[in-house]
Amino acid sequence: MSEADGNGGGGVEPGGSLRRSVTPRPIPAAPPPGADPDAEAEGGSEEDSDMELLRNLLARTLGLGTEPPERVLDELSLAGIARFMQSERCRRVVCMVGAGISTAAGIPDFRSPGTGLYANLGRYELPYPEAIFDISYFKQHPEPFFALAKELLPGQLKPTVCHYFMRLLKEKGLLLRCYTQNIDTLERVAGLQPEELVEAHGTFQTAHCLRSSCRHQYDLSWVKEKIFSSLVPKCDKCQSVVKPDIVFFGENLPSRFFSLLQSDFQKVDLLIIMGTSLQVQPFASLVSRVPASTPRLLINKEKTGQSDVFMSLMGFGCGMDFDSDKAYRDVAWLGDCDEGCLALAELLGWKKELQELVRKEHAAIDAVAAPEDTSSASGGDPTSRRGRTDGSGGRAESSGASSEQRGDGKEP
Ligand code: OAD
Question: Name one GO molecular function term (predicted).
């Protein structure tokens, strides 16, 4: 991935890897049909990507093949989005989400000033905050990551209203896919099935030995046991470090990300973006992959993903435009994600259903967690940032038991 604003001091990695760069690069083509879908990512070559970029730039500059996009919203507002969702035209919704949808569950986001993870890593004495998720740094110094993982591991957390709003979208037959940058697995706990998800930055659910000749797989409970004993997990077979399958800066995104986005983003009728600063590539550039007439709704505390003059000149003019007199399809609802989802649910006539779903699911999580207590499962430091309450009265820690109980804790 990369950071679109260029902070963080990292280099630009080739096409499909997680990177922090100034300019979004085109996403490589999907792997050829028949390619092993579980193989490590790499779509097209960098030359293919550069050709695609050149073609797009030329087409835009010369105005080739570009008709004025159709305006499908009757109003650029949440109400306009709700009316569109109730129309025949809206059959496939894609959600793109980030850390902001899980803050209400007690998990800090990354970049919020003061409370974000990157502002609170002082004790690890890192060369720069993102180093904690940088694969080169990790290979030399795995300890800071595992110390942090002790706090960040999926524990007894409850999905938020926002997660359950996506579950409702699925139940209404509208959810084509949820693309998440989060590694907390709360989408699964909320009831989204692996096939409905693209965990673009990986997941804690599985882990692998780092040695390329070994790559032995371990499960979450094995890793948890080591981490909660304050040990760096070492492979039983070869004693190399074992890394959870989350995507670090400098690593490739899962091949599933590249293969599914090709078709999903061609046929999506509505894109809903929630709780993300859209600072990290290649994920952030997905907003520009939807058809020109597809409405894009941002539900976030701040406006993100807007196009700027430089990007437009470079041919990357597809960032969102909420405010200019040319705006025709982008809507920003600014505020808390849960509140935004409730407001949209109300306009859709789903609010009671959503509230009831949250109540029922949280009660089920509490019921599973209660007999186990929090002692062994949480492993969490009760004073850590994870210990915030989730607003439903329940403590926001858990063993992930609900996802295991559902039997949906598999790798996609
Ligand atoms: P960020 O921390 O960059 O952005 C979170 C966004 O959510 C910000 O715009 C916040 O203002 C907003 N936000 C926070 N809480 C909210 C709430 N309750 N309601 C509404 N908005 C809220 O997190 P991401 O965009 O997810 O990668 O970060 C992307 C990637 O950067 C992460 O996946 C992570 C990180 O480096 C890895 O570590 C692999």
Answer: NAD-dependent protein depalmitoylase activity
What is the 286 CA–ligand 1 centroid distance (Å)? 16
Radius of gyration of the chain (CA): 21
Domains and CATH numbers, the chain: 70-106+159-201+253-366 (3.40.50.1220)
Contact between 369 and 399 under an 8 Å Cβ cutoff? The reply is yes
Ligand 1 centroid distance, CA of 307 (Å): 19
Q: How far is the CA of 367 from the centre of ligand 1 (A)?
A: 30
CB of 103 closer than 6 A to ligand 1?
yes
Tell me if 209 is assigned to a ligand binding site: yes
Which helix (H) or strand (E) segment holds residue 151: the answer is helix 143-152
Taking CA atoms only, the protein residue closest to ligand 1 atom 2 is 110
pLDDT in tens, 184-237: 889 999 999 999 999 999 988 899 999 999 999 999 899 999 999 999 999 999
CA angle 203, 289, 298 (to 5 degrees): 70
Question: 52: which 2 tokens?
Answer: 């695609």
Question: Mean pLDDT, consecutive 10-residue segments, the chain of 412 residues?
Answer: 38 51 40 36 43 61 67 97 98 98 93 91 91 95 92 79 98 98 93 97 92 96 92 97 95 95 96 96 93 97 85 65 93 98 98 98 89 43 30 29 29 26
Q: Is 238 annotated as a binding residue?
A: yes
Q: Which residue of 2, 20, 112 sits with most ligand 1 atoms within 8 Å of its CB, as the best mutation to test the pocket? A: 112
Binding residue per annotation — 318?
A: no
* Residue 310 CB contacts under 8 Å (≥ 6 apart), including other chains: none
pLDDT computed for residue 171 by the predictor? 98
CA distance to 4, 103, 123, 253, 303, per residue, from 129 (Å): 16, 19, 11, 21, 23
CA–CA distance, 154 with 177 (Å, rounded to integer): 22
Of the listed 201, 208, 216, 362, which one is catalytic?
201
Is the CB of 163 inside a 6 Å radius of any atom of ligand 1?
no
* Most distant CA pair in the chain, distance: 66
